[in-house]
Write a structure and sequence with these properties.
single chain; alpha+beta; three-stranded mixed β-sheet; 6 helices; CBS-domain; two-stranded antiparallel sheet
Amino acid sequence: MLGSILVGKQPLVTVTPDTDVSRIAELLYQHRIGAVLVIEGKAIVGLVSERDICRCMHTHGKAVLDARASDLMTAPVITASPRTSICDAMSIMTDRRFRHLPVVENGELLGLVSIGDLVKRRIEDAEAEAESLKHYIAS
């Protein structure tokens, strides 16, 4: 379940719709993350990823650094519940071709998971299952 992946993750980095793209790039670098959520009040209004910045740099050049989050964010943002399975989340992300999925419950933002988080958990689960099977066979 996605809720279990959020335990121990670094604090969520968010921006407002008016945040400059240059500041967003700085945050992505500082926190070693691939995306930030764009929040207005308590509502998720968009998401800005490295891909969004690269796409806009290709079409608008250096001027993108003076743009605001609202100018290039992906919206609306698809969200998931903390009870969403890892396999379901991976399917959503693969089918829709994005790499970050906010986790929301009762309108409250709980966190953001990346495809990397999900792959890491799937590998950990597979390794634990293999180890368990080894112990079962050996006993």
